[in-house]
Each structure stands twice: as C-alpha cells, then as structure tokens.
Design a protein that fits this description.
alpha/beta; Methionyl-tRNA Fmet Formyltransferase, Chain A, domain 2; 7-stranded mixed β-sheet; 4-stranded antiparallel β-sheet; 8 helices; about 25% helix; globular
C-alpha cells in the first residue's frame, strides 16, 4: 500500500508509533510548516516531522492547498490511502477523494458526539466520562463522514477526571491500533461504512489561552461543586494552555491538583511567574 499520513499534534506521533508496530508505514508524511517557538522564537519543526525524518520518510509541509505545485505533489503520487490525524487544516474535496481507497480519519470521540477541534479536552471539561475513538471515511464536512468502526475507552471512575496529556496519548494509541486493525479489511472491500446519526451530533469549540485563567484565592480554596468544576479545567488544560491564577500581580500556573477528603480543591504543585516548580503549600505558607 502507498499511504500518505496527514498529521498534527499532539496525537500523530503516538498514532504513527502504533501503525509502525503493525508494519504500516506511510511513504509520505504531510505536516505543518516549521514555526518559531520558545523564548528565542527559534524555527522549530513539528514533532510529526521529526518522527518522519528519524524513520527516513519523505516530508511535505504545505502552507495551503491552492498551489499547483502542491496539487502536483499529491496527485502524481498515485496513493492508495490517506490517513488524517489531528492535522488542523481543512482539506479540499479533490484531495480527500484522491486516493484509490479514500481518506480515513481517526477522531478521538464516539461520533457523532463531540465533532470539532478539541474532543479529548472537551470531554474532560464537560465531564463526559463515556468516550473513545472513531474511524471514519472523510468527506468534505467536519467529522461528518460514515463510520468504519468505533471503540469505547474504559476509564476507571477512581481516576476521573484524568489528566489531559495522558488522555491524549491513550486515545492516540488506541486510535492507531484500531486503525491498523481496520486498514486490511478496508482495502479488501470487506467493510461497509455506516452513516452517522447527524441529528444526534454535538460539537466542541477550539480551546484558547483566554479560557485558562481561574479566579481563586490561594488562601481560601473552593469547595464542593465549584472545586470540582475548577479541577475539570485544570485536568482538561494540562500541558496547554495550562490553568493559572493571579496573585499579587504575578501569574501562578497550576501543575497538579486534586479534591481532598473535605471536598476542597487541593493544589499541590505550581509554577510562580519567573520561578521554578514549587510546592503550593510552601509558597503560600
């Protein structure tokens, strides 16, 4: 099979690792262009590109799909299958329909629930405990295509709410293994996709930095439902954009927290502005 993989962060690398374990390795990786990053704004390749280079796979980083050169690059490849994972760009219909066996997408929710750009973190934020991954045949509408297969993720209630970065990796690995198991039957025409029940579709919005500020007093932390709602945010925004609160005109990032036996928010690890990680109770003693 001649496969092109279109991927973005944070899901692509775990998916690629799973596919590789099943000896499914793309011939081409399509990812976002290198971007300035860090305090020095140094031009930095996306992790998907780094993975591809380590595995000696050709890399393609188009900014847009309106360029004739881009079209030629993909149309002349005569690909059997495209795979799309958290790519973050809207693909035109001509591209989706290009491969012999179409374009498959891993979506980290139980579609038609949580269509949109942030299903994993939104599931935590909205306290949706039944989640999983869906493999769809893409069409030109967002997360709208027919379903090849789905798998629920079993989450221990004692571990809920889970950390967002951990759930990203777990969902990506599950999705990669599920896709790998489906591809052979899909290529052989043994799977008939099932149309989604579009009347039951729900949607999630993009998570932005301005959603991450918390209004809390470090000397009088919230209790009961307010504490739980804040904990959902802390867990959902783990890694990025990360929750924070302001104290004495300084930004205090929250790294770890839980609800204690008195139903009070217990913050354990923070990063005060301009300082290293430190214990919350020691900083606010």
């Amino acid at each position: 099979m001649k496969i092109a993989f279109f991927g973005g962060e944070p899901l692509s690398v775990p998916v690629l690792n799973e596919l590789k374990d099943f000896d499914i390795i793309p011939e081409l990786i399509v990812c976002n262009p290198d971007r300035p990053s860090g305090r020095k704004m140094q031009l930095t390749p996306p992790p998907t590109k780094v993975w591809g280079e380590k595995n000696n796979i050709e890399i393609f980083q188009p900014e847009t799909y309106k360029d004739k050169v881009v079209k030629n690059k993909l149309t002349e490849g005569e690909f059997d299958l495209f795979i799309v994972v958290a790519y973050g760009k809207i693909l035109p219909k001509w591209l989706i329909d290009l491969p012999k066996h179409g374009t498959l997408n891993i979506h980290p929710s139980l579609l038609p629930s949580l269509r949109g750009p942030s299903p994993i973190r939104s599931a935590i934020l909205e306290d949706i405990r039944e989640t999983g991954v869906t493999i769809i045949k893409m069409d030109e509408e967002m997360d709208h295509g027919p379903i090849l297969t789905q798998m629920k993720m079993e989450i221990d209630p004692k571990n809920w709410p889970v950390d967002g970065t951990e759930l990203d990796t777990a969902m990506a690995r599950m999705g990669g293994a599920l896709l790998a198991s489906v591809i052979p039957d899909w290529i052989e025409g043994k799977i008939t996709p099932t149309e989604q029940d579009h009347d039951k579709a729900t949607f999630c919005s993009k998570i932005t930095k301005d959603m991450s500020e918390l209004k809390i007093n470090p000397h009088d932390l919230p209790k009961d439902d307010e504490a739980y709602q804040i904990l959902l945010k802390i867990k959902a925004f783990s890694g990025w954009p990360e929750t924070f609160f302001m104290h004495e005109e300084k930004r205090i990032k929250i790294k770890q927290a839980h609800i204690d036996e008195t139903n009070t928010l217990n913050i354990t690890l923070i990063v005060p502005e301009g300082k290293k990680e430190t214990d919350f109770s020691a900083y606010f003693k």
